[in-house]
## 1
Amino acid sequence: MSIAPSALPEPSAHPVDPLTGTLGGATGSYEKRLEDLAGVYADAGAFDAACAAQPGRIVYRVEDVRPAAAAGDLIFGTTHMEPGRIGREFFVTRGHIHARANRPETYYGEAGRGVMLLESPEGQTRILEIAPKVIVYVPPLWIHRSVNVGDTALVMSFCYPSDSGQDYDVIGRSGGMAVRIVASDDAGGPGWKSVTNESYRPRNTDEIAAIYATQD
Ligand code: ZN
C-alpha cells in the first residue's frame, strides 16, 4: 500500500467493553443467528428444536473497524458469543479460512472461556484455549473457528490484514471440521472434549493445492 502525503491516515483509539464486546468507533457490525448456522451441528434434531424454541436467537455479534481495504492495512474488532449448546456440542462460529490463505490473525481474550479450533488444509487439528488476557495466534493457512465452552459470553478482540478475505465454505465442503467440541463431565477436566466428526471428508490433493494457490 503506497500512501500519498495528502492521504495520510489519521490514528485512532477504540475502547473495548470486555463484557459486551462493544467497540468504540466501530464502522461495521453483523450478527449470526442460530438459523444462519444450519448444517454446522451434529445433532440436527436438537438444532431444529432450538431454532423452534427461540426463533432469531443471536449466537454471535461482530463489530469491526476497516480503515482501508488495500493490502498493508488492518481490520480489527470484537466478537461477542453467547453461551449455549446444541445437544452436547457447544456454540461455534461458522469458521473460515482466509480467502488469501496466507494471511494470519490474532485473537485476544476479553471475557469468558473459549476454544480456538484450528485445522490445516491437510486435516491436522489444533485446539487452543482462550481466556481473558490470552492471545491466540492463528498462523497463515489454518482454518479457524471459535467455540464458547463456558457458561457466560465469550468476548474476544481480533486483528487481521485488510486484504485477507474469508472463505466460509471451506468447512462445509469437507462436511465440517475434523473434530467437534462437546461437553464433558470428566471430573477435574475443563468441561469440554473433542470428538471425531463422523461427517468429515478430508480434502483431496486438488482441494489442498487450491488452498495453497490462493497465496500471494
Ligand atoms: Zn479469520
## 2
Amino acid sequence: MKKWFSLVLCLALLCPALALAQETINVYNWGDYIDVEVLDQFEQETGIKVIYETFETNEDMYAKIAMGGSSYDVIFPSDYMIERMIQEDLVQKINWENIPNVANIDPRFLHEDYDPEAAYSVPYTWGTMGILYNKEMVEEAPNSWDTLMDETYTMDMLMLNSPRDTLAIALVMAGHDLNSVDPADLEDAKNLLIEQKPMVLAYVVDEVKDKMIGGEAAVALVWSGDATFCMSETDELDYVVPQEGSNIFYDSICIPANAKNVSGAEKFIDFMCRADIAAKNYEYVGYAIPNTAAIELLGAEEYNASPVNNPPQEVLDKCEVFRYLGEDTKLYDQIWTEIISEF
Ligand code: SPD
C-alpha cells in the first residue's frame, strides 16, 4: 500500500514537470490557411505541441517579425516578402537533409526569382488574383478589371484589404506594370481606388468567402484558392483572370532567423510536404499545391481539370510575380493609408 502511495505521489509530482518539458513550435500563418486536423495529426504523431497564430497580410506578418519582439519557428510568407526577408536576414537557410519530403515538390516551383538558390523557402501553395463573380447577379461574365470600376456594382463589390494586392490590380487597371514604382503610375492607381471607394461594400480578406457564398456581393477581388473554395460550396459563383493580366503568387514556408526550435520547425515542414498531408490540406484550403505526389493521390486528372487552380498557359503568360520594391515600398504604404482614410 505504501509503495502504491509513493508511486502515485511521484507521478503527481512528475506530471507537471513533464508537461512543462513538452516540446513546442510556434507557427505563424495566414488566417484560414491550414486544416486544423493536420495540426492535430502532427501533434499526435510527433508529440510536439503547435502554438498557432494567424495574420491577414504579408505586411502584418513582416511588421511583427521585423519588430523583433516575437519568436516564431515557422512562417508562411509570399514571394516578394520572402525576397525582402532574405535581404534583411530575417529568415534562415533550410537544411534540406532534414526535409526529405521535398522530393514530392515539383522542381519548377523551386529556384523562383525571390529565392533563386532555393535556400530559404519551401513551396506551399500558389495561385492567381482574379474576379470571383455571382453568375445570377452579373449580366455578362466579366473579362476585364474594368468590372471593378462599374457603377452597376455599387455596394455589390468586395475588395481585398491588402495594400500590395489591391494597388497592383489598380496599377494594371491604369495600364501600368503591377510592380511599378513610378510615382506617376502609383498616383493613377491611387486615383482609381479613390474613385472606386464609394462603390465598395467592404475591404476584406478571409471574410470574402462567407460573403460571396452568402450572395452578399456580385463581384470580388480574390485569390484563386478562395475562389476554388467558394465554388465548391455553390454553383452560383465563377472565377476569371481578366484579359489585361494579373498577379501570380507563390506562398512558401520559412524558418525565421531567430527561431528557437529549428528541429521542430523542420519536422513540421517535412510533415506538410508529405503527400497524404498536402493532399488532405488541399481539400480544406483549396489553394493550388506544388506537391506532385499529393496531386497524384488526389487524382491528377480531376485536379488539373480546374482552370482556377490550373490556369491555361495563355492566362499564366499574362501574370506577373510581385517583386520586393525596396525603399519604394514606403510609397505603397503611404498611398494605401491615404486610400483607406479617404472620406
Ligand atoms: N486565407 C489566406 C490566403 C493567403 C493567400 N496568400 C496570397 C498571397 C498573395 N500575395
